[in-house]
Amino acid sequence: MTGRWFRTHPAAGPPRKRVLVLPHAGGTASFYHPWGQESGAGTQVLVAQYPGRQERWAEPRIERMEELADEITAALLPFLDVPVTLFGHSMGASLAYEIAVRLEDRHRVAAHSLHVSSRKAPHRLTPRAWHLAADDVLVAEVRALGGTDGALLDDPALLELVLPALRSDFTAVGTYGPREPTPVSCPVHAYVGDSDPVVTAADMAAWADVAPGGFTRRQFPGGHFYLVEHRAELLGAVDGPR
């Protein structure tokens, strides 16, 4: 299970901590490959690879956030021998939160910290039914958000390959509605681009409601995928002191 769910980037020496990265809707583990190359000494980076893409292309896709969280939490259990930090961008932020909740509720393990990016807090979500839209409408939304290689969206043959994964992820996002904010005991850190078209700094502030253990918020220049231009700064914040 662990081999299917995570791309593992080894630490320099025995790992003293781990960072689990949860990609955005339509995202792949490859998008976050530089994180594994640029993390600090002693940090092992795991990047989730959702089914239905790249080496997992032939596997059935998962269209419910709760099921994804269940599967990834189970796959993460063998890696809890050292502190684990969770980072999720966009859809991945909701997933990271759900994993943090499951670790505490089911396994009595608290994440070292939870880092959420470009996604509203669970009780402030306003799901949009993009997964029910026609292909061209869904692709236009993905293109507007950025973060997906334009060549994939422009080439009909490539688009035919990636569209099912896009639609399944947007189904998970669109069916994950607002819910009671279950607090997590670890510190929560929120990030957003100052020109994000769908999430604001005020939206990210609501994550404080699930963070009795401490909360910070940081804004970067850029849009929904500000993290591409500011990867080094963001990774430094997530990975912590080197």
UniProtKB/TrEMBL annotation:
The keyword Hydrolase applies. Pfam families: Thioesterase (PF00975). Coiled coil: none annotated. It comes from the Bacteria. Residues 18-237 form the Thioesterase domain. Keywords: Hydrolase. GO terms for molecular function: hydrolase activity. Belongs to the thioesterase family. This is Oleoyl-ACP hydrolase. The gene is rifR.
